[in-house]
Amino acid sequence: MAWQTAFRVGFPLARLWWRFRRRSHEGALAAIHVGQALLLVRSSYRNEWNFPGGGIRRGETPEAAVRRELTEEIGLTSCDGLLPAGEANGVWDGRQDRVYFFELRLDRLPRLRLDHREIIAAQLFSPADVRRLAVTGPVSAYLNFKQSGQTAAVPGR
Q1: Segment 84-106, tens digit of pLDDT
Q2: What is the DSSP string of the chain?
Q3: Could you tell me the residue ranges of all domains in the chain?
Q4: Tens digit of pLDDT for each residue in 53-77?
Q5: Considering the entire predicted model, what is its pTM?
Q6: Residue 157 has pLDDT above 60, yes or no
Q7: Is the domain 2-151 a CATH 3.90.79.10 member?
């Protein structure tokens, strides 16, 4: 509970800091498909649903970052079949952001181990349900380019 409170308080402060500094950011997110369903996660500090993933550290590749985040956030260590799926640029959370998307298609969802600090929920949603959810800007960008049939770089919002 203390970690969740720290994230809930710290995230708005971080957003203010990012606006002030005006530095760009890079992240990597994984769209995990199980059949027709899509796995989304809920952070302790955000109202919108997101894909598992996060920031890319200095010297880290986008693929290494998303694999690390999948392990840290949901306990997913086997990512065989993880494929690049495009990228989006936009202003999200008060900063210029480039997000690299990866896709992982699974027959069944393995047992997840949420950290219960940053990630407090993970759920599979049908395509129709995903469209009715409050999702982050990068998830919205991914869904829009998938709907349009694009497979390369996508414009952010």
Answers
A1: 999 999 988 777 899 999 999 99
A2: -HHHHHHHHHHHHHHHHHHHH---EEEEEEEEEETTEEEEEEETT-SSEE-SEEEPPTT--HHHHHHHHHHHHH-----TT-EEEEEEEEEETTEEEEEEEEEEEESSPPPP---SSSEEEEEEE-HHHHHHS-B-HHHHHHHHHHHHT--S-EE--
A3: 2-151
A4: 999 999 999 999 999 999 999 999 8
A5: 0.80
A6: no
A7: yes
C-alpha Rg value of the chain to the nearest Å: 15
**CA pair distance 120, 107, nearest whole angstrom:** 24
Amino acid at 23: R
